C-alpha cells in the first residue's frame, strides 16, 4: 500500500451500469468527537436517495456501524446496508448476520466497560455482534487500551480479533470484512453484472478496495493515509460534490 496519487475520480458515466458502495464515517460525514453526534446532511441523504433510484437499487452503505445504528442515521432511506464491517447485511432478500457467541460478547463488553470506567475519555460502543473502544477524547491512552485489549483477547482463546480504525479499536468475532459484504451484494440483483465502485476513508476500507479491484471496479480513497485505491477525494465535502456530479452525469443516460 502506498500514499494515494491524488487522482480525481471522473463522475460515473451514463454508458455503464454501476453499483455504488459507500462508507459512512469520514466519507459521507466528517468525523466527530462522539459517534452518537454524527448526522448526515439533508443534501447527502437526498443525493443517496436519487442515486439509489438512478442505479435501480444497486447502492449500499458498507459501514463499521451496526445496522441498528445506521438505520436512523440514514432515515428515511430504505437502502441496502452492511454493518459491523460486513458481519451483518440487510437488503431486499432479508437480514443476514454472522454467528455471534453472546456469552463471549457479554464477557468482553463487561471488561471493556470496566476499563472505560477507570479511564476518562474512553467510551465503549456495543454493536451487538461486535464492540468498539473509542479513544478520540483520550489519545494518550491508546497504548494502555491496546495492551488491555490484547491481554483480554488472549484470555478468550482469540475468538475475537482487534482491528485498528481512526481513534478506535474494533473487536470482532466474525472474520467477514467489508470486501466480503461487497462480494455478497454483487452476487445478486440488482448489483449482479454491474461495475462496483467503493468510497472509503479508513484502514478497514482497504478490504473493500481489494475486493472491488478484484472485481474490476473503481476504488476511491477519501482523505489521507496509505491505500490500494486508485482514485482520491479530499473529504466528505468533495465526496458530496462527486456524488452530485455523478447523479447529473447519469441523468444524461
Ligand atoms: O465504516 P465507517 O462507516 O466509516 O465506520 C467506522 C467507525 O465509525 C464510527 O467511529 C468513527 O467515527 C466517529 C464519529 O465521527 C469518531 O468519533 C470515531 O473516532 C471514529 O472511529 C463508529 O462509531 C464505529 O462504530 C465505526 O466502526
Automatic annotation (TrEMBL):
Family from the record: Belongs to the trehalose phosphatase family.
GO molecular function: magnesium ion binding; trehalose-phosphatase activity
Protein name: Trehalose 6-phosphate phosphatase
Reactions catalysed according to its record: alpha,alpha-trehalose 6-phosphate + H2O = alpha,alpha-trehalose + phosphate
One matching Pfam family: Trehalose_PPase
Gene name in the database record: otsB
Pathway(s) this gene product operates in, as recorded in its UniProt entry: Glycan biosynthesis; trehalose biosynthesis
Organism: Larsenimonas rhizosphaerae
Known role: Removes the phosphate from trehalose 6-phosphate to produce free trehalose.
Record-linked InterPro entries: HAD-like_sf, HAD-SF_hydro_IIB, HAD_sf, OTSB-like, Trehalose_PPase
One annotated GO biological process: trehalose biosynthetic process
Keywords, sorted A to Z: Hydrolase, Magnesium, Metal-binding
UniProt-listed Enzyme Commission number(s): 3.1.3.12
Lineage: Bacteria, Pseudomonadati, Pseudomonadota, Gammaproteobacteria, Oceanospirillales
Cofactor: Mg(2+)
Amino acid at each position: 500500500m502506498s500514499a494515494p496519487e491524488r487522482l480525481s475520480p471522473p463522475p460515473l458515466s451514463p454508458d455503464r451500469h454501476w453499483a455504488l458502495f459507500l462508507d459512512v464515517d469520514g466519507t459521507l460525514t466528517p468525523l466527530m468527537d462522539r459517534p452518537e453526534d454524527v448526522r448526515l446532511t439533508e443534501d447527502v441523504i437526498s443525493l443517496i436517495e436519487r442515486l439509489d433510484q438512478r442505479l435501480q437499487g444497486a447502492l449500499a452503505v458498507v459501514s463499521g456501524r451496526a445496522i441498528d445504528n445506521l438505520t436512523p442515521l440514514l432515515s428515511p432511506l430504505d437502502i441496502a446496508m452492511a454493518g459491523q464491517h460486513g458481519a451483518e447485511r440487510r437488503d431486499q432478500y432479508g437480514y443476514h448476520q454472522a454467528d455471534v457467541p453472546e456469552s463471549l460478547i457479554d464477557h468482553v463488553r463487561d471488561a471493556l466497560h470496566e476499563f472505560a470506567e477507570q479511564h476518562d475519555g474512553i467510551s465503549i460502543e456495543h454493536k451487538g455482534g461486535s464492540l468498539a473502544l473509542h479513544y478520540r477524547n483520550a489519545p494518550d491512552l491508546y497504548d494502555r487500551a491496546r495492551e488491555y485489549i490484547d491481554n483480554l483477547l488472549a484470555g478468550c482463546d482469540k475468538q475475537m480479533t482487534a482491528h485498528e480504525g481512526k481513534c478506535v479499536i474494533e473487536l470482532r468475532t466474525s472474520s467477514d470484512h467489508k470486501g466480503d459484504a461487497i462480494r455478497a451484494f454483487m452476487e445478486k440483483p440488482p448489483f449482479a453484472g454491474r461495475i462496483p465502485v467503493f468510497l472509503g476513508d479508513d484502514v478497514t476500507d482497504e478490504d473493500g478496495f481489494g475486493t472491488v479491484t478484484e472485481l474490476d471496479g473503481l476504488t476511491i480513497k477519501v482523505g489521507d493515509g496509505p491505500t490500494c485505491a486508485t482514485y482520491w477525494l479530499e473529504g466528505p465535502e468533495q465526496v458530496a460534490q462527486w456524488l452530485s456530479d455523478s447523479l447529473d452525469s447519469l441523468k444524461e443516460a
